[in-house]
Amino acid sequence: MPSRLLTTLLACSLAASAQSPIRGFPADAAKQQRQWEQKFLALPEAKRIRTYMQRMSAEPHHAGSAGTRAVADYTLGLLKEWGLDARIENFEALLPYPASRVVEMIAPVRYTARLKEPVVAADSDSSDADQLPTYNAYSGSGDVTAPLVYVNYGLPDDYDYLKRQGIDVKGKIVIARYGKSWRGTKPKVAAERGAAACIIYSDPRDDGYFQGNIYPRGAFRPPQGVQRGSVMDMPLMVGDPLSPGWASEPGSKRLKIEEATSLMKIPVLPMSYEDASELLQQLGGPVAPEPWRGALGFTYHIGPGPATVRVKLEFDNSTRPVLNVVATIPGSEFPDQWIIYGNHHDAWVNGASDPVSGASALLETARGLAELRKSGWQPKRTIKLILWDAEEFGLIGSTEWAEKHKTELDRKLVAYINSDSNGKGRIGAGGVPSLEQFVAEILRELKDPVQNVPLIEVRREGRGNGSGSTNQPFSLSSLGAGSDYVAFVHHLGAASLNLGFGGESGGVYHSIYDSFHWYTSFSDSDFAYGRALSSVMGTLILRLSSAPLLPFEFPTVARTIDRYIGEITKEAGKEGARVDWKELRAELNKLTVAAKSTEADYSNAMRRWNQPKPERLQQLNELIYRSERAFLNPAGLPGRSWYRHQVSAPGMYTGYGAKTLPGIREAVEGKRWDEANQQLHELAKSLRTLQAELARISTALRSLND
User: What gap in Å lies between CA 204 and CA 213, rounded to an integer?
Assistant: First the structure.
């Protein structure tokens, strides 16, 4: 779509709602806010986003490499050129690179896996030097020879099935297919069940020709394409494995590798479906049940054997630099209240989609805000725009930064907004319930650049991606462990959001084919959705940074928790009678009343607005944004003290996927009834704390205009 037409659509979409109120803004301030937003929406340019992507994805730039230093320097130069106060903040971390990788079948026939992605003639970047080999970061080292067992997706239920069939994986090498869970779950479960090594391959049913034409003819993974990635035990903690809970800076204390708890204990390696098919075809034993069968052209067997495989892995476990690029726009009235927008800049290889598509939108948002300042706009609150490093290894740049600044962030951080990969399709939006209505308001106003309907309708109805109509009201999805928001929400208890477009592009995720050529051929080729993401993020930032009264809303919090409780009780069935819900339900009922009362006081304060004193506003807004901290349990979740938020967390065996009310839900799922009741009590305490915070907010709201 031409940039001028897109600008017109976005501007018209906002103009159409120019008379509607904006949450957090009195009427006179809302009119001026609309004017600034319309000016901002005219600024982002698709051609600039394309230029940023072409430059940043031109060479491999994995964390710790010269390539990522070049990208950090390039983005720093742009931010300074636009007049922003920007610098690189340095950390260091254990970033292992592979030193030796061997997978060979020694019986019943011999085969040596290629473990290399071939050059594609149409894509010049596929022959770039300095590509990281195919491997899984934080794998264990070792040299293992053993019979092979196929374990489907490698989830606990899959191993339970094997046990019922009398198949023991102890001492064996298991091969699992990517999908249904985060990759780190697969070797974690394999090690718990006694396996000696783990291979993870991309089956074409999930990630290849079964889904559509393969690259370069189409968007999907070719036979020798491989998904790299970290297998850090992210549900346990994230960040540098050698500095859990504190920032890893040059000269800081560090654990020994053998003391780190988030590293995999067994060797694990990713593999293409071309290599994997040679191994899988040599398995005997039972025929795999129908749900276990992929799309390779033979009958899937489970084993064990007769395929016998050797896996040999060695790593260079060096500490390497981590470079975060931080730009700051100071607030004019409340400089000690911060809005942060982040996206990572490191990639496994060239990373045009992951992460440069999102990083490019962040840069264009930064340029738009810088241009707006030149026109006289100044945010009330401080804005920080940050490009994180080493996200791919385990959210390291963001986590180390959050751990370094945690005392300051506890006082100052209003909200953290995150993006990652961006493509064409409908918008995905996740976050804390207190910001749900705020996000919905913006998604009702801004329109999809292709469908020309409000973004909230595309998301709800699934237009254009074949998902059909859900007919469900808008809600933010829960946050798990998929990107750099983790430290801010799950460890520090800051209200957080994660947004991005996608769902229509296919994928060559974490391979050498995630390139500028692939992206401009099969994803957001005209960068209309890159510009749309910049528009959404810019609007979020403009409102959060300038709202006289922060647009948090609490009845949704109570409704969301009530929904989660209903889900758990339904799933637990009759066995759930061992859980005593009385205390929690009583506190939730009180919270529901308190939240409605606070919302009424909020509305009254906005109607009676009479230029309240800045110091009153500052104190009130601090009460509002720090209310999210009420959900933190200082002791952390059971078995993983780093994670402290009680409303959502990555599941112990889902990884990226969130578990809601995780302390309670996972105890109920594991039939640990004493633990479930204890976690119920902890959440009830948090609800009481939040009630007290809402009472203080209501008191401040009622006296705001006196």
Answer: 11
Using an 8 Å Cβ cutoff, are 62 and 349 in contact? yes
Can you tell me whether residue 161 is helix, strand or coil?
helix
Q: How far apart are CA 72 and CA 388, in angstroms?
A: 9
Q: How far apart are CA 67 and CA 626, in angstroms?
A: 39
Q: Which of 296, 317, 338 corresponds to the end of one domain?
A: 317
Q: Which two tokens stand for residue 251?
A: 């000269």
The 10s digit of each residue's pLDDT in 131-144 is 999 999 999 999 99
pLDDT digits (tens, 9 = 90+) for 363-401: 999 999 999 999 999 999 999 999 999 999 999 999 999
Task: State the pLDDT at residue 654.
Answer: 86
Number of domains in the chain: 3
* Pairing outcome for strands 173-177 and 197-201: parallel
| Strand ranges, E, within 84-139 | 85-94, 97-107, 111-112, 136-137
pLDDT, tens only, 560-602: 999 999 999 998 888 878 999 999 999 999 999 999 999 999 9
Among candidates 176, 201, 173, which has minimal Cα distance to 186? 176
Same-domain check for residues 458 and 528: yes
- Full residue range of the structural domain in which residue 625 is found: 555-702
* CA 362 – CA 326 distance, rounded (Å): 12
Predicted TM-score (pTM) of this structure = 0.95
Instruction: Give the list of residues 6+ apart from residue 150 with CB closer than 8 angstroms, or none.
Output: 174, 175, 176, 280, 283, 288, 292, 300, 301, 302, 303
Strand runs (DSSP E) across 136-289, as ranges? 136-137, 142-150, 173-177, 197-201, 229-230, 268-271
Which whole number is the average pLDDT over 152-160? 97
Which of these three, 317, 344, 364, is where a domain ends?
Answer: 317
Q: Map 227-250 to HEC letters.
A: CCEECCCCCCCCCCCCCCCCCCCC
Segment 10-37, tens digit of pLDDT? 545 444 455 689 999 999 999 999 999 9
